[in-house]
């Protein structure tokens, strides 16, 4: 089968404290410390066979994520920017939709022909974190498209326990191609969904939501906020193209934080009440946190989602004075987040189709990732067949 494979040179930085497991398995815990000179290639790979507890999925669409971009981008010494877990060479891609074409000997949750999407983290279900219900923080996890082969390929094998049917979307999208395009955006939507409802506490219909950063996670997040009954959704984003996408999705309050004063703007739009929900999806935390802290409504929830390279100064007194809470949120695993997001999509309330702005075929998947490095798209998709 054809697949987009990312490879890099294992070359731990001299001052990096390499663990024994990393040295033995070449599975990096901090990729930016060990992997050099990443290279992408569309190449021929053996079609995988599903293990007993897996299904084989014929991939229809896979989306390019910020992490796919940061596995390709490097610093001056050639080390990749991505700082979490990887093993290479690996077929990348983890936001996907497809059709089950084969099931392993013990896999019986899905039928052949069923349209599906999947979570990213294959958790062990046995470690302390898993047994406490925090599958996303499993101590023995693997990740599709990072430490195991992913979805920029004609086929991918997926443990059935992290696979979810999207057959309910047939009611919403009568065109099969539309269904699979939409289903490939379930995964990015789950990131903010989990932050808003799995992590933060007490977000109510009618709350004012502010997104700081309107890339793919911000855009899908704004759609989730609207579907969940936000009173107003406000957004700040310096890219003209991305602000236009948000406008075209029907969002009225989208601003360039370089041209307007974001604090004044939030106060104006919320009639001086401040925002109840603040979502950090930009990574530019030294700019965004001062704005967040000056626009906190009473009992505001701040949801931190982005991967920021540095830490902002936090004005603790402002959280105290407004009974506000800051929640860190990572991933989307477990807690029925996936099926709920799929239900929102099936009900027609979450419609991400307008977020997809570029589509490439598999032979040009490397170009798709280069396109995403420009950071002007809503979502870049790769179409497999
Ligand atoms: Zn992603
Ligand atoms: Zn575990």
A few lines on this structure:
The protein has 385 residues and is α/β, with parallel strands linked by helices.
Characterise the protein shown here.
It is built from twelve helices and 18 strands. The model has no long low-confidence stretch (mean pLDDT 95). The N and C termini lie close together (12 Å). The radius of gyration is 20 Å and the shape is globular. α2 packs across α12 (365-373), α5 packs across α6 (216-227) and α5 packs across α11 (337-346). The protein has two domains: 2-185 and 352-383, Medium-chain alcohol dehydrogenases, catalytic domain (Quinone Oxidoreductase, Chain A, domain 1); 190-328, 3-Layer(aba) Sandwich (Rossmann fold). α6 links the parallel β11 (208-212) and β12. The chain is an alpha/beta fold. The protein has helices spanning 20-25, 66-72, 128-131, 176-183, 186-199, 216-227, 240-248, 262-269, 285-293, 316-321, 337-346, 365-373; strands at residues 2-10, 35-44, 54-63, 90-91, 95-103, 115-118, 121-122, 142-143, 155-159, 163-165, 208-212, 232-236, 253-255, 275-280, 296-304, 325-328, 356-361, 379-383. Strands 3, 5, 6, 9, 10, 17 and 18 form a seven-stranded mixed β-sheet that branches. It has a six-stranded parallel β-sheet with strand order 13-12-11-14-15-16, sandwiched between helices. A three-stranded antiparallel β-sheet has the order 2-1-4, with no helix packed on it. Bound molecules: zinc ion (ZN) (2 copies). The site of one zinc ion has 9 residues, from α3. Keywords: Metal-binding, Oxidoreductase, Zinc. This is Alcohol dehydrogenase. Residues 36-382 form the Enoyl reductase (ER) domain. GO terms for molecular function: adenyl nucleotide binding; anion binding; oxidoreductase activity, acting on the CH-OH group of donors, NAD or NADP as acceptor; zinc ion binding. Its cofactor is Zn(2+).
